[in-house]
Design a protein that fits this description.
- The protein is mainly alpha-helical and 371 residues long.
- The protein folds into two domains: 234 residues, no CATH class; 102 residues, abc type-2 transporter like domain (abc type-2 transporter like fold, 3-Layer(aba) Sandwich), CATH 3.40.1710.10.
- The protein has 14 helices and four strands.
- Helix 2 packs antiparallel against helix 7, helix 2 runs parallel beside helix 9 and helix 10 packs across helix 11.
- It is elongated, with a radius of gyration of 28 Å.
């Protein structure tokens, strides 16, 4: 290993990066675009859901109930004169659910008897239907608790819920999604950058020129790793800055721990990109393989959006081969919970093993020969 040759190879790579704006766009422009797209466009929160309300016999109790519904940020209620009209609105997707207060609602409530509220929910989107059902039940329980308090606790509920939300008390899905999105972005940066750049060198013939120099393959690999590692770290820092200052996601854990574990993940991603480039020596094939092998698994199987524990057992086992799975867990822990060392050490160890594996495989496959 000749330090002088490595230094000049790194310098040559930086000059090539400055002459090729696509690499800079992938490292710095694409993270901003993806964060804006997913940060503002993707949300698991259900707010201002249109709900049809039918009141057969208006009373003070029904007015108080509907008033609570109108004050909630989760619902956008509309009164309908009959259940038939409300069901027509549900079928035409002008409402996602129906609340029906029947004629005997107030009478049964005054007698202390069961006064059920009929709820009909559009179940086409099962996830939204479950969320809406939970919101309606929560609103109903809150209204009962307020009513009991207004009556001097004469009909207080025997059990009073006192919930406490840990780690994400505002229940903002953005606080959960943005850290995971950083992992997906870094996967794309690390794998796509190196795969495309090395494949481009094979297409242009500059790799053959490098092969003709006294530089060893180890020196060539290090000369390519260092510049794109620094660019990946820069893209990660830009993404974290946007997450904290633009999307106001709290960073509870240590920044330096996050930087160290991000470096481990980036080494694994760069190793995957170099391994892809050793198998595909044209840009189109390298880009397709990088997206299919790295980006799509990171997006679907990392826990970024879909809960891994709800997946079938074979798919859950498959997720252990996805480096982004471990990095998503690290980022969500550091951003929302803090330095929880059992989680950080376990996932950091897995990333270290993956980095060693992919870089080792790259070194084994990279030979100073043209075939």
């Amino acid at each position: 290993m000749n330090a002088r040759r490595v230094k000049h190879l790194i310098r040559k790579e930086f000059i090539q990066i400055l002459r090729d704006p696509s690499a800079i766009a992938i490292a710095f422009v694409m993270p901003v675009l993806l964060l804006f797209l997913f940060g503002y466009g993707v949300s698991l929160d259900a707010k201002h859901v249109p709900v049809a309300v039918v009141v057969d016999h208006p009373t003070a109790d029904t007015s108080a109930f509907v008033g609570g519904l109108q004050q909630s940020p989760y619902f956008s209620p509309t009164l309908y004169p009959s259940i038939h009209a409300a069901r027509q609105a549900l079928m035409q997707r002008r409402a996602e659910g129906i609340l029906w207060l029947r004629t005997d609602f107030s009478r049964k409530l005054a007698q202390g008897a069961s006064a059920p509220v009929a709820a009909e929910i559009n179940g086409v989107d099962a996830n939204n239907a479950r969320i809406l059902e939970g919101y309606l039940e929560g609103m109903w329980q809150n209204w009962l608790a307020r009513r009991a308090a207004d009556q001097a606790a004469s009909r207080a509920l025997p059990i009073r819920a006192d919930p406490r939300i840990w780690f994400n008390p505002a229940l903002r899905s953005r606080d959960y999604l943005v850290p995971g999105l950083i992992a997906v972005i870094m996967t794309l940066i690390g794998a796509l950058l190196t795969a495309l750049v090395v494949a481009r060198e094979w297409e242009r013939g500059t790799m053959e020129a490098l092969m003709a120099t006294p530089a060893t393959m180890g020196e060539i690999i290090i000369g390519k790793l260092v510049p794109y590692f620094l660019m990946g770290i820069g893209g990660m820092l830009l993404s974290v800055a946007l997450a904290v200052w633009l999307f106001t996601v709290p960073l509870v854990g240590s920044f330096w721990v996050m930087l160290l574990l991000s470096a481990l993940f980036l080494l694994a991603a760069l190793g995957m990109g170099l391994l892809i480039s050793s198998a595909a020596r044209n840009q189109f094939a390298a880009a397709q393989i990088a997206i299919i092998v790295t980006f799509l698994p990171a997006f679907i199987l990392s826990g970024f959006i879909f809960d891994i524990r709800s997946m079938p057992v074979p798919i859950r086992l498959l997720t252990h081969l996805i480096a982004a799975r471990y990095f998503v867990a690290i980022l969500q822990t550091l951003f929302l919970a803090g330095d929880i060392w059992p989680i950080l050490l376990k996932n950091g160890f897995a990333l270290g093993l993956m980095a060693v594996f992919f870089l080792g495989m790259t070194a084994l496959r990279s030979k100073k020969r043209l075939d």
